[in-house]
Amino acid sequence: MYAARRNQTAESKVFYEVPTLSNTTLLRCLREIQLPFTEEDLMKPTAQSTQYLFERCLDLLMGVHTTQIEEVRDKMLQNVEHPEVHHDMLGMLLLYDRMSKLMLELGFADFNFRDITKPTHDRIVKILSALVNYARFREERLTTFEQISAAGDEIAMKRANLEQIHEETSAKLNQLKEKAKAEEPETKQKEAENEEYGRTLRDQKKNADSIHTQYQELKATQHHLRDEMANAKLTSSIEEESQAATENEATVRRLQAKIDTISAILEEVNACNRLLSDCEEGIKNYETLNRHNAINEEKIGKKELDMQELQNKEQYLTRMLNNLMQKMAKLEQQQEKKRENVQSDMNQAQQEYSQTSSEVSKMQQQMSEIQASAELLDQQINDIKTSLEVDVSNLQSEYDNLKAQFESYLSEMKL
């Protein structure tokens, strides 16, 4: 049903061959798009029904209401003498101006003023076929346009939500960074203390291992000496036992001294063990702090990844928004250009109307002069007619006198 493109241009505009619809199809389509037109109006179109139909088409397809045309007409008639004379004609001229622009946009090039004032069946069928074709095409594209508009609104809403999420995430990330920055000196101090504890712990552990080794060696020596003393008691005599006892007393004193030394060493080992426990506790705390730091760093990394993803989404949405804004700007420029063209055409039409009004005034003045001349000529004709009637009457009187004289003369001749 849609128009097929024709390779023809006029004034840099492409026109189209529009399929002519049958009367039944045309009336059905007009009812579907809510345009009032009956079969009688189609078969025998009148200027009044056609003008009303064109006004409804302008309202439906261009958003130009009848009141707008009437406002322009009334404004143009304010500075015109005898506006009632030009009222209807100016309204039809404005309607023709709007309709011709609409038909040019539809690719219908030969729309003329007679299609409004003296419409015919064939012409009105062609014009309505073009209008119905465009209305159907516009109805299908309007759904796509509404979907794009709804998608644009949804994208704008998502962008606003993402911006809010981005702001909240940025605030949380800044708080975490500030907290980490504020805790950085304390963390470094804890790390230094933990390193110092670790070194001390390792040194003390080495000392403890050395002391424990010495203790084990002394303990083994003590057991060995006790075994030797037992063997000496069984094999030696009383004298030997007495001498051995004397020697063993010295040995026992040496061993007691070593035992005292070992006890002192054990106390130091216990103190080292307690210190070792404290160091292990410090190491556990350090490891816990490191785990917390690792968790915080992991969270910061995730937040940075989320931030990067949000920034990428924002850039994508910004590009889409810029594209939509560019399309809207182009549409606004086209609308502005159309408005400027319409305003220019209106100014030109107003100038032509002013010129026509001036010419009409001159013609009215000439008609008045011609009418006065005609009245004067009628008066002169009446005067000439009256004069001729008088002359004819005089001639008739003279003729009657001459006739009477002639008859009298003939009578005298007979006598």
Automatic annotation (TrEMBL):
Domain of life where this protein originates: Eukaryota
- In this chain the Nuf2 DHR10-like domain maps to 236-351
Which Gene Ontology molecular function entries are recorded, alphabetically?
A: protein-containing complex binding
Keywords (alphabetical) are: Cell cycle, Cell division, Centromere, Chromosome, Coiled coil, Kinetochore, Mitosis, Nucleus
The Kinetochore protein Nuf2 N-terminal domain sits at 16-148
Q: Which GO terms describe its cellular component?
A: Ndc80 complex; nucleus
In which broad location class does this protein mainly occur, judging by the first location in its UniProt entry?
nucleus
Any one biological process term the GO annotation gives: attachment of mitotic spindle microtubules to kinetochore
Q: Where is this region: Disordered?
A: 176-208, 337-367
InterPro entries xref list: Kinetochore_Nuf2_N, Nuf2_DHR10-like, Nuf2_N_sf
Q: What is the lineage of its organism?
A: Eukaryota, Fungi, Fungi incertae sedis, Mucoromycota, Mucoromycotina
| Keyword Oxidoreductase assigned | no
Gene source species: Umbelopsis vinacea
Q: Give the family from UniProt.
A: Belongs to the NUF2 family.
Localization of this protein: Chromosome, Centromere, Kinetochore; Nucleus
Q: What is this protein called?
A: Kinetochore protein Nuf2
Pfam families, A to Z: Nuf2, Nuf2_DHR10-like
Q: Where is the composition biased (Polar residues)?
A: 343-367
The answer to whether keyword Cell cycle applies is: yes
